[in-house]
Amino acid sequence: MKLLCAVLAAALVSAAFSSAATTPAATPPPRPPLLAVGTLAPNFTAVDAGGRNVRLSDFHGKVVLIDFWSTWCGPCKAAMPHIERIHQRFKVRGLVVLGVCVWDDRAKFNAWMVDPEVGTSYLKVFDPAGRDLGHDIAHGLYHVSGIPTFYLVGKSGTILFAGVGALPATEQSLDQALARAGFRD
Hints:
The chain is α/β, with parallel strands linked by helices. The chain has helices at residues 2-22, 74-90, 106-114, 137-142, 168-180, and strands spanning 45-48, 53-55, 64-69, 96-101, 123-126, 149-153, 159-164. It has a domain at 65-185: Glutaredoxin (3-Layer(aba) Sandwich), CATH 3.40.30. The chain is 36% helix and 18% strand. A 7-stranded mixed sheet has the order 2-1-5-4-3-6-7, covered by helices on one side. A hairpin with a 5-residue loop joins strand 6 and strand 7.
């Protein structure tokens, strides 16, 4: 009887390991698509470093580049110098760059504003939902599932570009969208 139990136990362990070895790893669910080009950009309210409300609609009639970022996000920090160069080149021509800090703590945002890890001069605001995914601006309104995520919003309030990541291909696509919107050197 002991021998039969030992054989059965060995068979079960062997089956479990061989099954695990042949079962493909679970794949993460697909990312939701970003809002499509041509879609009306949802209005939102965020808070600047001084505690004042800033709404996307405050910039109606201007082209707005929205950068969804967080203080803890390495790729966000890597993308900031490119976004700052865009801001410096085109602010005199009316481009608004709006950095929306999402999925973060207000205290960390405040500390960043006093002593930023990456020096930039474009307007940064904090999503008051903080880490409350689903009720936040990025995830809830803009379908952001990874950061940095960028949206270029035209003068009429429609989305001209949507992209994710601090990659050369994303930067190039953003630059091309800016050129199509009239922001070229």
